[in-house]
Structures are given as structure tokens and as C-alpha cells.
Amino acid sequence: MLSFGQYSEDGDWVEHTAESVIAAGRTTFQSYLFFRSPVHGVCVALDGDIQSCEADEAIYHEALVHPAMLVHPDPRRVLIMGGGEGATAREVLRHPGVTRVVMVDMDAEFVELCRTHLAGWNAGAFADPRLDVQCRDINEFLDEPGEGFDVVIGDLVDFNDPDDPAAALYSRQLYERLRRRLNPGAITATQAGGLTTGRTAAHAHVRATLDAAFTNVSSYGIVVPSFYHLWSYVLASDERLPDVDALPMERFAQRATARRLALPATGPASLAATFALPVSIYEKLQKPAT
Amino acid sequence: MLSFGQYSEDGDWVEHTAESVIAAGRTTFQSYLFFRSPVHGVCVALDGDIQSCEADEAIYHEALVHPAMLVHPDPRRVLIMGGGEGATAREVLRHPGVTRVVMVDMDAEFVELCRTHLAGWNAGAFADPRLDVQCRDINEFLDEPGEGFDVVIGDLVDFNDPDDPAAALYSRQLYERLRRRLNPGAITATQAGGLTTGRTAAHAHVRATLDAAFTNVSSYGIVVPSFYHLWSYVLASDERLPDVDALPMERFAQRATARRLALPATGPASLAATFALPVSIYEKLQKPAT
Amino acid sequence: MLSFGQYSEDGDWVEHTAESVIAAGRTTFQSYLFFRSPVHGVCVALDGDIQSCEADEAIYHEALVHPAMLVHPDPRRVLIMGGGEGATAREVLRHPGVTRVVMVDMDAEFVELCRTHLAGWNAGAFADPRLDVQCRDINEFLDEPGEGFDVVIGDLVDFNDPDDPAAALYSRQLYERLRRRLNPGAITATQAGGLTTGRTAAHAHVRATLDAAFTNVSSYGIVVPSFYHLWSYVLASDERLPDVDALPMERFAQRATARRLALPATGPASLAATFALPVSIYEKLQKPAT
Amino acid sequence: MLSFGQYSEDGDWVEHTAESVIAAGRTTFQSYLFFRSPVHGVCVALDGDIQSCEADEAIYHEALVHPAMLVHPDPRRVLIMGGGEGATAREVLRHPGVTRVVMVDMDAEFVELCRTHLAGWNAGAFADPRLDVQCRDINEFLDEPGEGFDVVIGDLVDFNDPDDPAAALYSRQLYERLRRRLNPGAITATQAGGLTTGRTAAHAHVRATLDAAFTNVSSYGIVVPSFYHLWSYVLASDERLPDVDALPMERFAQRATARRLALPATGPASLAATFALPVSIYEKLQKPAT
């Protein structure tokens, strides 16, 4: 029996049964594995960490994209940092007011692999004329002068400890650079890793980083079954953001309706409720790490 | 390295590292294992399934007990079906209006083991004069004429398939018997197993069973990190219940305040938000199984 | 981390780390997986059981082929039952007196996969004009009148319990058919599965089957590291065979020298010593199963 | 399901199912775990490595003790280095000419645990008046002037890499000290870890160490099923020793008979044959490591 195992967010061992391997190898930047699970469908792992699984990637991607897009009254120009699978772009492009999406992912080979092996998953996003895919370093991109964005979505690989090299993707320098490319009223969202009672350091690090760059930050999370954990995200803006005391139930429902948004995996109520984290977890997020 | 492994709700394999074994053996009814995890603290397993772990048992038990108790305007008499660990009783007894709690758990040996090994966990509940522990079959108890209850909490072992013997604890017969012992306006809550995108049959079975006995049912769920899944519950009553379109945010907050309830693991907002399940999961719960 | 796990011969769980997957799929008859282990090199599994690994397949194949070939004073015509990987043929063809080898393996697709992915492994055997590969059912082949053989090597998939369908490949019927195709003085050898202190049933079944068809049988075994066990074989003949009280040390050495046989993985002394099984295991092989 | 996992000698992962835990904790020197496997019976692990299992400890201990004892024409005084379980002493004491056995094991608490939990295993050895158990450091013991020994058995914990602290138990210093306490014609045997095609470094290190202190060394190995590997040993002496070209078949059989030795797990032929290692493994042992 073939299986794919990894340590969970809190240090136990989780194995996904693998029916078959679709593609495996290394790009210039990372090792990749596309396999088929009898439970979760096609799964994608990078450097030994599951990134997304067919059966519930829509939960992950809807929760990543739509809170930021629904908080913003009229998002037109959107920047995606990372997002190689194409599913983040797919969700962004569902908002009819969007006129331009720039997706900056360093790994052209991985983007190509996703285009080939995850076609049902990108659902035509790569062919949408509004999408501009740039395979380059995000810091380089942000340093150039250029257009501003209304919403920025961070779909970069996650890290387990603040010492992990991938933590650089969640640094103050990057977010300071990012500020220069934001339109007034911009909303930024980023995934922030698995979140458990015992391991809150990674999320707290991301939150503290964004907190240094923006007036307001807000944490939220949703269960992605194939990740075996609550998956967490951070919203940041100089505008007011939803939080545990002000779940944006009606706003999300109204704007989703107005934009004729299908949210087939989550729904507006479920997305609004993601901001009500259990207090025993929420309390640990205020300060960086334990 | 010692570890405790079990298939997750959806068929993958999850291993908890075990630092040491505190107690292991068999009672008349089931095998038990109390072990210490470096991640989750003391963990309790019955017949090979984790029941609770020290680090987050409060999330599981608060979510099991308080929605029903907060929906009811004045719960005084409470029945707990199962609940051997004593933590369900602990949560019930926090509501100051409660005058009597009957806990019916078939397995006297397991209750005694929990009293010994989980003392911090029951937190004195077994010594509370309002608690009456009866170690006997729940069906037998319900068949006798006797006092009525305002709230009933089902904290019985879970099952994976409707064919599993433990499924009898979630049968229509049991709930028909239960109805005879309910006071007007009674609220019933039961745990209903792990809930994932792919495996919804166990929850749907519990929900359908309660749906046959009560006018209204409502599903909700919360992440218990050591269970590696969304954990689900069903509320049932002839009264109106919270649901995804009517999260009881204010009611839960007001009643928690009025009753001076500490909800240190979850909080009223988080408990109210548990009713907003992702639609891709929620839709599958309406009908029994797939 | 990708890994390939299977229950060991005695019921524990063994996982081979998999660096990459070379080929995976199903033929008409069985599922196959060719993967690369950092420890054992290329590994081949059929229906979830490891068949051979690059790092030590030579130990398995030398031990399968050479005792029978060295017991026989002048083996010319050899039949291989199974042997899809081509390495059994490779070993047989090393004996310079061999003029014809018929290899009967049912699964043409698997033979083709081995020709492609295990080229270093067959080492040109498939190109040797003395080898005649016939992809068909072994029973059918044996039923036809035809040439006789001096040595027969059984390299068929193994089975764990006498109830397993693969046990038919080790049936009395098959060996009665086989007798009709044997030359006088013929020696038969077959692999007979993993052999441990606790699990001797599979080997005992094979031994009993051959014992019913031949005057003499002899059990032997060698450690194949990647199999995590003593691997066992049975020799059968109407001639006298080596056994624990008469290790053929000198005969094997002399004949290997005379035939200029390289036995790079095992050596003649090690092959002769394989007949000295520990008595606690040997005693259990005399009667079919426990 | 509770299980005990460890990396195998060559880096794969092997899990023993654990039915129950008999004792677990730490002594001053090491962590211990006594558990029951449905396959191997009671198993003992120290610092995360299996030491012995009830079902086949006799194979391990007979192979450790009897080759040295049978090579020596008249062993009377025997030193055991380590051997806390008491089974090595049990085997030594079976030789009727033995008048005195000194067992030096540093860990008094572990020896006591074995006396309690492995009583069937020591089989009364600890009560034999010929046995003198000294719980102290072996270097200290050897530094003192004192009696000489005919046979020395090393049953110390094994190590995986020459850098491992336990490698000090296999150092030249220790064997130089040991020489001062040897009677003329003395034979030394030590266990030397698991031995696989890919991992020969630990054995080669032990062999090289003994080679520096003695005129002759000889490697041998036997399968201990619960160790999932060929288990290896080294004999050392200034006398002539058995080797792959001179298996001591008759000598072992004659001396076992003369001493009325039961060798119920292995037998004299099987012990003699352990010196015929496969050449692909044997060749790698001559030089320290790869």
C-alpha cells in the first residue's frame, strides 16, 4: 500500500493513502508530488507538505479569497502572491467586477504542472484574458513601480517555525514593499498555516508581521478535512475588518447575492462564522509565538 | 517510539505519539487505554478510538453541553447519557440554575478509572451533591417511570457505519423512550462523530434518528484539534433551534453573562458560529448516508 | 514523505520509504508498482506485496535457482514457472550446460514492464537465444505433451494463508501435471514465502504439497534484507536432497568452480548453509500449518 | 491501536503492534518499555530500540552464547558484559562445566525490572549460586585486578553509527582492558547489531575493534524474526575460530552432545551454519564502514 505521510501541525503523524502517483519530481525550487487518494482525490504536495486536495480544495480556496473580496466594496484589480495551482485565480475571477488579476508565482515549472494535471481545478482560469501570470520573485515584482491593487491574496507555502526559510515570505520587509502597491482601501489576505490548541506560533508570527504594516488585522479559520486541522488565515487593512465580535453575516450574504457569487463549498454564513475562533486558540494569536 | 494509531473519520491513518501508558486493560464492556501524548496531554481511548485528550477536551465538552443549555431558558434537571469521564457533568454543573444531574453510564469500571486518572479533568464534578451517577443500561433507565428532564446530553461512544453495534445507541427506539422522560420545552444534544467532506453517513444517521422523534433538529460542529477533524453534534427539540441562517450570537452571549458562565475553551461567539457549517458538508447531512 | 507499507509475514507493519514512483498501474491480472527506495534501489510490488528490490534481488534469485541447479549433475533443459522480472532466467542461463530455458509467465504486460524498467536486472536474459518466454497459464502449458525438463524453478507470487487464491499455484494438481514433464533425475525448486517463528503455515503448505508428489523434499531459507525476513524455498525430487544433517558444502563449491559460476551475492558456502534452518522453525515445517 | 515503531537497521520503518504495556519509565541510565505483542509475546525496548522478544529471544541468546562456549574446549569461568535480561546468563549456565559467571550490568534498576517482568525468561538464572551479578560500569570492573575468564560474552546495547555514544562500549580501550582479565585460550563473543546489504558500518566497526585486540576474528549472523533482520555477532580470540570456509558442524554437534546441551531454538547445525554469511555482505565487513 502506497501512502503519503507527514507530521501534522502539532507533531503527530498523518498518512494519506495513495492509490497512484500522477507526477513526481523536482523543479528548480522544490520537490513536487501529485498523487491520487481514494479519500481526497488528486492531492498535491510540495517539499513533503500537502498543498491541496481535490475533494476539499474549494473550501481552502473560497476561505482564502472571498472574505477579502467581500469585505472590499468593489474589488477590481487583484494581486495573487503564489497560487500556482490556479484555483486562487479561479475564485478571484468569479467576482464580476474584477478587471485584472496579476498572479506572481516564482515556480514556472510548477505552474505548468498544475496547468496540465489540475485542469479541472483551475477550471479555465489560466485562459481568462483578465489573468496575467508572472513567474518571478515576488520581492522583485513589488520593488518595481507599477499598478496598484484593491485586494492582495497571499497563497504562498506555509512554514512551521519562524526559523523556517519559508518564513521570509511572511516578513515585514515584504509587507512594507507591498504597501506601496496598494490602492486606498485595499484589503490583504494570506493563508497562515494550520492552527491547533498547541501550535499557534506560525499563525501568530504571520499576524504580528501584518500587524506591523497595517492598522487592523483579523484572524480566521476553517476546517479543510484533508489537512486534518483548522486552517488559518489573516486579513489586514487600514479599513475596518470583521472579527469575533462582529461577524459580517449580512454583508457577506448581500454582497455574494449582488455579485451572483456561487460559494458552493462554504457559503456566506460559513465564511462569516470563520472569524469566531474558539477563545482558547484566539487568545494565543495576539502575541508572536509560545 | 510508542504511538497510538487509528483510522481517521475518512479512512487515512493518524498516529498520536505516546510518551507513556498510564493504564490499559479491559472492563466488562470495552478495552481502555489512558496514555500521555507530548502534544495533547493525557488521552483516553476506548476500543481503539480516542475519546478525549487533556489539551482540548474542554473544546469538545463545552461544544457538547452549552449550546443545549444556552438554548434552554432555565435548565434545572439534566440527564447525561454516557459521559464516563465526568467532564460533561462538570460543564453542566457550571450552570447555576441546575439542581439535579443524572448521569447514566453503563460502565462502572470505566467511570472509576476516570475518577482516578482524570481527576483534574472531572474537576470535582463527582463530588458535587447535585450529581447522581447511575451505572446501568440507558434503555433500562429510560423504561422506568421517573423524573423528567429539561436538557438531555448524549455523550456516548461514536460509530463509523450505521451497521456498527454502537449505532444502537443512536436508534429511534432509544429516542422514543427518551421522549417520555422529557419536560416541556426540553432540549436534547448528542455528539454525532467526526464530519468530513467525504464521510457524512454517521452524522446523517444520527440526525435522521432524532428527526424522526422531534419537530426540529440542527447540526453543528467544531474543530477538536486532537481528533483531527471537525467534530459534529445534533440538537433536537420541539422548540425552535439555532441554525445556519440564525446564529444565536446575542442569545448565547447574554445568557452566558447572566449565568456568569466561563466558557474558557470556546466562548459564546464561537459556540454560536458552530451552526454555520460549510454548505458542501451541510447539504449532505439532510439525508441518511451516501 | 511517500512510503510503501505492507504487513510483514507475521503481522507487523513495515514501511519502505519511496523516493519516487517509476510506474504504477494494473495489468489484466494484477496491480503493479515500481518505485525507488533510497535504501533498496528500484523495488517491484505486485498486488501490494514487494517482489524484489534492486539492492538484494540477487540474494533472492541466487538462492532460488542455484541449489537446484547445483544438486543436479548436468542441467540442460530448465522450466521457469513465473519469473516475470527476468532475473530467474538470468541466473539459470549462467550455467554453461544449459541449452534451453522455457519461462511460462501468465502476465505478458508485466513481463514487458520488467523488460523496460528492470533492464539492468534481467541483464540481457531476454535476448539470450536459449530463452523461450511463453505468456500463458502454467496449467495449460503443463497439460500439453511436450519436452521434458531437468530442473524446474517455481518463481510464482506467494500467498499468506492456504485460503488465498494464489495458493492454487502451489496445489497438488499442478505438481502432478508437472511430473509428466520431468526428465529422470529432475530437481524442482520453488520459493515458499517468508518464514518466521510464528508464521510457518504457508511454507508448510508448499512443503506438504511437494511432499505428496515427490519422494524427497527439503526446506531452506536465506535472509533477503529488503523482505525483512528469512525467505524460504522448497526443493523436491525423487533423488536425494541436501538437508540440515548433510550440508552440501563441497559439492556446491566443486560444481560452482567446474561451471565457472559467479555467485556474487551469496557464494557456495552460504547457499549450502541455507539448509541448516534453526530447529525451532524447522520442526514446525513438517506438518501443514498451525 | 497501540504500536511500537522504530527505524530498521537500514532506515525503513517497522511497527510492532502492542496489545498492552507492561511497564514503562526511565532508570538512571535509559528509558525502558516492556510491552506485549500479539506476534512476538513480551517485548523489551531500551531507549526506543527493541532488545528482545519472548517468541524468539532464545534464537538471539543461543546464537550469542553457544558458539563461543562450544569453540572453547572447557569453559569454566565466564564474564557477561551487560545482559540485564538474565537470558544470556541462563544460556551460559547450561554448560555443566561452568563454575562461575560474573555478569556486569551498569543498570541495577533495569536488572530488577527484568527479574520481575521476565521471570520465565531468566528461568531461575538469577537464583543460580554460580551467578554473581554486579551492577557497575564495565570499564571500572575491568580496571580492577581480579580473576580471569575463559569466555566473555558482550550483550551490550547496540549502536547504529560509529558516532553514537553507545559505540564506546565497542572501543579498543575497553577490549585492551578486557585482555588483562582473559585466561589463556579465552574466547570472546559480542553481539554486533543488525546486518543488511546496505548497512554494514556498525558491524564492521565492532569487528575492526576486536581485530585490533585479538589475533583472529570471525563474523556470523542469524535471523531473529522479531528484529526483522539478520542479527550479527563477532567472535574474537588468539585461538583459531570457525569461519565461512570451515563451518564447525561436527565439533558443535559433538560438544553439544557431550555437554548434554539442549539448543531448542537453534540446534548445533544451525549455529555452525551462521558463519556462512552471504558473500555480498561478508565482503563489506572486512573494512570499517562504507
TrEMBL record, chains A, B, C, D:
What's the top EC group for this one? transferase
Give the signal peptide as a residue range, or say none if absent. Answer: none
Supply the alphabetized keyword list.
Polyamine biosynthesis, Transferase
Q: Name one GO biological process term.
A: polyamine biosynthetic process
Question: Its Gene Ontology molecular function terms?
Answer: thermospermine synthase activity
Q: Does the keyword Transferase apply?
A: yes
Note the Gene3D superfamilies from the entry: Spermidine synthase, tetramerisation domain (2.30.140.10), Vaccinia Virus protein VP39 (3.40.50.150)
Ranges of residues in domain PABS:
1-238
What's its EC?
A: 2.5.1.104
Q: Pfam families recorded for this chain?
A: Spermine_synth
Give the SUPFAM superfamilies listed for this entry: S-adenosyl-L-methionine-dependent methyltransferases
Similarity comment text for this entry: Belongs to the spermidine/spermine synthase family.
Q: What is this protein called?
A: Polyamine aminopropyltransferase
What organism, scientifically named, is this protein from?
A: wastewater metagenome
The gene is: speE_1
